[in-house]
Amino acid sequence: MSGPEARRAARLVAALARALLLLYPPSFRREVGAGLVRDVRRRAAELTAAGRRLRLLLWITRLLASLVANALLAWVERTGVGGRAGHAPAPRRRGRASVLSWLDVKLGLRMLAKSPGLTLAGGTAIAVAIAVSVGFFGFTWSFFYPKIPLDEGDRLVGLENWDLRINNENRRSLHDFVLWREEMKSVDDMSAYRTVSRNLIQADGTAELVRIAEMTPSAFRLARVPPLVGRTLVPADARRDAPPVLVIGYDVWRTRFASDPGIVGRTVRLGTTVYTIVGVMPGDFAFPVNHDLWAPLKADPADVPVGRGPSIFIVGRLAPGFTLDDAQAELTVLGRRSAERWPETHARFRAQIMPYILPAMDINQQGAKSYLPLFAQLAALLTLLLVVLCVNVAILVYARVVTRRGEIAVRTALGAPRGRIVAQLFVEALVLSGTAAAVGLVVARAGMVVGQKIMETEVVEIPFWFRLGIPGPALAFAVGLTLLAALITGVVPGLQATGRRVQASLSEFHKGGGARLGRTWTALVVAQVGVAVMGLPIAVATGWWEVRGATTVPTYPIEHVLSVRTAPDPEAFEGMDPDAWARTGAADFASVQHELRGALAAEPEVRAHGFTMNLPGRGAHRRVAVEEVGGSAGDAAGQAAEVGSVDPGYFEAVGDRVLAGRTFTEAEREAGAADVVVVNRTFVHRVLGDGTALGRRIRILPEGEGARVDTLPERWADVVGVVEDLQRNAVDSGLLPAMVYRPLPRVPLNGAPILLLRVAGADPAELTARVREIAARIDPTLRVAATPLDDMYRQERLALELAALVLALGMVAVLLMSAAGVYALMSFTVAQRRREIGIRTALGARPRALLGSIFRRAATQVALGVVVGAGAGVGLDAVSGGELLHGLGGALLPAMVVLVGGAGLVAAVGPARRGLALEPAEVLKEE
Amino acid sequence: MAVPSPHAPLRGVELHILLSVVDRPRHGYAILQEAEERTGGRPGFEIPTLYRAIHRLSHDGLIRPAPPPEEESDERREYWEATREGRLALEDELARLEVALRVGRTRMRRSAS
Q1: How far is CA A210 from CA A58, A270, A291, in A?
Q2: Contact yes or no for B52 and A28 at CB 8 A
Q3: Nearest-CA distance from A317 to chain B in Å?
Q4: Measured distance between the N- and C-terminal CA atoms of chain B, rounded to whole angstroms
């Protein structure tokens, strides 16, 4: 970490310490607070300068826990010492043993059982907050600071060139790799790898796409894992003329070769090359990222100019006695030398070294440097969530403490120091928050297990080191949060109930007054309601804007369509000049595709087939100008439309109905004619104003801003047909695409088209194996992905539905929080005014009038919150130019006012009923 | 037998503070560094605990603010020195530890032979 960064991190930690110092007694802050903050800052600066991030983070966690715990103990000591003013020396009492007695814990457990409502509501809130916090923290930590399960895994590093011009890494660094490997003393076993995809061709001719790590043989030395069978790669394997060899993973050995003990020496065909298997690696070995096939990287710098060649990842291990900073210093010197030697390519490069996982996960070092603030921000946000929830719980606890004023008064009269009473309330709260934290941790842990399983099945390329869990720092964070929760929910109400006014309240006790809800809490309730009224419409409008695409549903028989994507073997065009590819490669590939289409068309289940560049209902976003009936261009800048390139079979494959005219002819397609187009119903409605479409002429404008039809050479396309829309949207027809279809040339130069097959009498998924089989027969190196269109559509919808679910959960959480605030406030009011309610009921007051007077204050706060929130919402929307509410404010804001106000009312029902059910005689008897 | 100090036994952090400030004034960070040196980098307490103990010992009259020594005058820092009562408390504590040390050594020797 550099000097300025170290200073920044130290300042941040010191600011945190200064903020937490507010929890300490004023005398402590005054007398030793400044010294404490100064020392924290100095220690943080020392640790950051040492560059030991992990040690620093562990220390910060310990420091925060210590700051919180000592704050509590300082208060206890202050009261335990006797609340003396000044520095007069006096024998002190040893308070610690009496602060945390088992009796308090037992009392705490009894209180849990005695107030089941409070236990359930408060406990759930704290448990949820801790589960969410630990879950987020643990996930982020596991992501950024994983433990690499290899010998000295924490000393593995990645090296790369950072290109300052494009602000990205440059991996065409074969020459650098050779130089660094020879020159660097601070990095051992330097190796290079790249991942390639090839078709694994089975004995029966079927092909399956697999990923292979092509790496220098030294990478096995780097991993320090011996093979299970045979050998790993040796330097001789990487020579240009060496026969191709392959090391396979345990699973491949077990599933594809039935754990054949004589595996060494067997051959396997990958693409066009036949490899001899020389070894099997153990089951948990997936180095360098998530691989199970390893071949030598045969790349010779002599074959490629500097800055060209394969794109490689360079890795190594810090040599004994060297730190990352030492290695960076050495690399910087080498980088400068390269810049002098190869100025055209390397003058703009900065060579950099970083922890192993960063390049593998495509996280750049610039991003990695911002981890510390990221963690600080994350921790602060999560702590804030807990604080907001705990404030509500604290109001509830305070309401209960108010009902226990009698007990407190008697104990104070019998000589119990204030610290003792506050400590008891703290322990009671700690029992609640500790129990809730235990539940929260169990929930978070279960979530991690499920998350790991989902990632292992859904995310194919999950790195071998990624293990979701609750690491030590996350656990320490949870402990800190638990203590903080207990402080807020136990000590704050305790201090309020036993404060300076306690003597006054003792005398007022029999009059029923005394306890009051502080201004801060009142402001918090107003703020909560305000945030709900302001934030919910914004969240709903933004969310709706994002997920409304999900309301567009397909009207064509999607469940019968199979999409087949194909790609040529990368070996076929590796290193090929783009022009040469256009001249020969593309045509060859197109003929293979057409052969595949012909063979699939002969399958009995296939009813129709066609090529398209885009999935149905999608196209390239372009602007389209329409020729006026008189001959001139109407709107020269054109209107938005989606342009798709399809062949004549496409319309039949998706079962599209022709509403007028015709689709393309084979002749138009062979010519790759650009002068005929077919449009859909929405295009006619939106662009042509429902007028006649056939015979009209349109022009697709080139991409880019400012293209105008009047500046282009005359080239119009005739609309020869109109087809039905492939989708409908019951909510907003404006979301349907205005489609323009043009004929797809036989040999497209900008990508491979998708083949769509309409299948009858079978599930399209059943045809996928057959597609692969036929493809392997035609060209074993052809890479094929066959997916039912329905599956793709479902996956897309799943993502949208997930977003909608998160949005809904967020809304419910905010609503519950504001309802909890109102509930707590109402409960408190009833508890505070029991005596008054009793007397007034006894005197014959009407229930409605009584209710009105009791809840006027709470209602005022809710109303104030609603007004503030609605005003802020409207104001923010206006400032953002309507971007926040997307024009939905008129409907959403009043709805949210009703919803939040309603939640407040519902929350008030329970306490109100309790208030009205008070028996006057009972209340007066209590007094 | 001498009357035991009302402060006995001292907590670990308190012992470290008194050991550091008994011969000359020291500031908080110097106390922490000395404690780390004495314990091989594991003093067993964090900065907030140290400062709470300083606050407590100062309230109990065992240490008091002092002017910084001339050779390392850093006016921004608060220096602390042991009071008479602090020295007595430290003496008591050391005597107590000596007894424990003697008993422990004797018994270890006996059990070894």
Answers
A1: 41, 9, 9
A2: yes
A3: 28
A4: 32
